[in-house]
Design goal:
The chain is α+β, with helices and mostly antiparallel strands. The chain contains 2 helices and 2 strands; from the N terminus they run αββα. A two-stranded antiparallel sheet has the order 1-2. A hairpin with a 2-residue loop joins strand 1 and strand 2.
């Protein structure tokens, strides 16, 4: 396991952590039960198979 040689300052730590941003999922149009819905691209197969209920 990597061990730092020196203590990292608070400002340096917070600057580094500030770059970690969550991104909104890419939404893909899918037709379910005759209606068009926008769903995350990773979940399209689950919606098509009927494993997930259509989003409201």
């Amino acid at each position: 396991m990597a061990v730092p040689k020196r203590k990292m300052s608070r400002s340096h730590t917070r600057k580094r952590r500030a770059q970690w941003k969550a991104q909104a999922p890419d939404l893909v149009p899918v037709t379910l039960e005759g209606r068009r819905h926008l769903v995350p691209a990773a979940l399209v197969p689950a919606y098509r198979r009927g494993l997930l209920p259509p989003p409201s």
